[in-house]
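Hi, here's the filled form for the chain we discussed.

Project: internal
Contact: R.S.
Residues: 58
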Amino acid sequence: MNESVIIALLIPFAAGAMLYVVIEELVPEASEGEHSNLGTVGFAAGFALMMVLDVLLG
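And the returned structure, exactly as it came back:
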């Protein structure tokens, strides 16, 4: 395999690992308190917006 192919496969894996860590650490802290669903909804909306922008501008 070419080195660029390996790197192209490992970068999305690293991004997914980072997303998992962020969700695992920040969402439980964001769900504490009075407005518990606001952080989760905000994360989901931001993620969806970034995916739409990636497809439209990519």
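Let me know if anything looks off before we file it.
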